[in-house]
Amino acid sequence: MRYFPAFHDLSSRSALLVGGGELALRKLRLLLKAHAKVTLVAPRLSTDMAEQARDSRVLWMCRPFRTEDVRGRALVISASGKPAVDEAVAAAAAEAGVAVNVVDRPDLSSFIMPAVIDRDPLVIGISSGGDAPILARQLRARIEAMLPARLGALARFAGTFRAAVGATIPPAGRRRFWERFFTGPVAEEVLAGRETAAREAMLGLINGPASQAAPAGSVAIVGAGPGDPDLLTFKALRRLQEADVVLYDKLVGPEIVDYARRDAERIYVGKAKANHSKSQDEINALMAEHALAGHRVVRLKGGDPFIFGRGGEEMDYLEARGVTVEVVPGVTAAAGCAAAAGIPLTLRGTALAVTFITGHARDGEPDLDWTSLASGKQTLAVYMGVSTAGVVAKRLIEHGLSAGTPVAVIENGTRDDQRIVTGRLEDLDLRLRQAAVTGPALIIIGEVARKAMTGEDRGLEAELTALPRRLPEALAV
Ligand code: SAH
Questions:
Q1: Active site residue 249
Q2: Which residue spans within 108-227 are E strands per DSSP?
Q3: Which residues line ligand 1 (CB under 6 A)?
Q4: Which of 255, 304, 308 to mutate to test the pocket of ligand 1 (most atoms within 8 A of CB)?
Q5: Is 271 labeled as catalytic in the residue annotation?
Q6: Strands (DSSP E) found in 189-295
Q7: Which of 18, 104, 109, 289 is the most buried (most CB within 10 A)?
């Protein structure tokens, strides 16, 4: 982050504004909104500016800028529109150690001003760090349109009840009280402009029995998708933002974990093959412990929790201990990788079924029903299959699947470093080793994998199409 975001308390503090024209006028209005005492230095004022400068909080010095003007100011803004003046103001402020902004000159400024959405006391500032001010303004317009006009009134309303809530509701329940309030019917009343009725209802809420009950903890087992944060569901995002504690796996990237609240506890429980940072038993115990202490726990898993994710075991464990469990589905690796590689997992006439299998093996060879997997016209999506790919390919071929069946390996699917390796079943293992696949990878076996082929494999495609074993399938399409 190039700039530190902060809100500055200027009430009754002294600010210096240099400039008397249109540019300065906007800054003056903003400074007055923030209740600053403004010293305005300009030899001349525009008509509008002169009007605004009549405010009792503005002291107009009708003369050019002098170095000593910056002394003792909480901040300085230069909007003179004259490079020589702006530079002199910036230099004087830098010398005096006072924060300075020169309009449209980030190079001369020690702070920059964001695009602002004002729902006082709720204020949203957007900055692109000076790189794309127009983008910031477009965003502002979109957010403006999303926010109810009376949002400021709602924030003020809540402000007047903060002390009462603090005195009545135990600390552990306060955040949840406010969360329920802001999405509940009393807030709706305020937004609709019926504040008197809302006040009465609010007193009922604060003093009602529900607000005194100890908060009940829970666990949401949440699928985070294959990697691209845009593939999170809205529900996953909501649960993450409500969570007190987040336990996350190796497959979940930092961009996604960062959607959690700033003050949520984040616990890494990733399991790498030989190097388990936490055993499944420890993870189960941690989840139960936090939930039973009244926390809202999110168990964040790659892909979908119920597909090779041990979500089922975790759910059983928690339910047996009386913990409320919710499962939030995610985009599983097969779906995410297939989409990212342009491979339809089923295709009319070509792939009538798709089977998700695991290549994980206890003793070198996965325990799978090879006969059914080798029957054609289906797609196999192999999870955790890189290290056993050779033996999987061999068994499938032995049980009758064509050695020329197209395969595609998607490594780090949907992430920035995604790679796709294609080939045919008989040389799957060789291809994997040549490409040195090390990230999480999904193997897709079946005619549909041909869709991902490019370059040299295209030649292979022509060759395969010419082979007689393609004929029945071609006729079937
Ligand atoms: N519950 C997860 C799967 C966990 S098993 C899901 O539904 O996706 C871990 C395996 O998932 C990895 O070995 C790999 O085969 C696959 N996988 C997960 N994320 C992946 C990604 N971004 N790209 C490719 N494969 C991925």
A1: yes
A2: 115-119, 122-126, 218-223
A3: 226-227, 251, 301-304, 307-309, 332-333, 337, 383-384, 410, 412-415, 440-442
A4: 308
A5: yes
A6: 218-223, 245-248, 265-268
A7: 18
Of 82, 250, 271, 394, which residue is the catalytic one? Answer: 271
SS3 track for 7-41: CCCCCCCEEEEECCCHHHHHHHHHHHHCCCEEEEE
Quick one: fold of 218-331?
A: Cobalt-precorrin-4 Transmethylase; domain 1 (3.40.1010)
Q: Write the residue with the smallest CA distance to atom 24 of ligand 1.
A: 441
* CATH architecture for segment(s) 14-113: 3-Layer(aba) Sandwich (3.40)
CATH 3.30.950.10 fits 335-460, yes or no: yes
**Domain ranges within the chain, ordered by starting residue:** 14-113, 151-212, 218-331, 335-460
Residue 472 has pLDDT above 90, yes or no: no
The answer on pLDDT for 477 being more than 60 is no
Pairing of strands 406-411, 353-358: unpaired
Q: How confident is the model at residue 284 (pLDDT cuts 50, 70, 90)?
A: very high
Q: pTM for the complete prediction?
A: 0.69
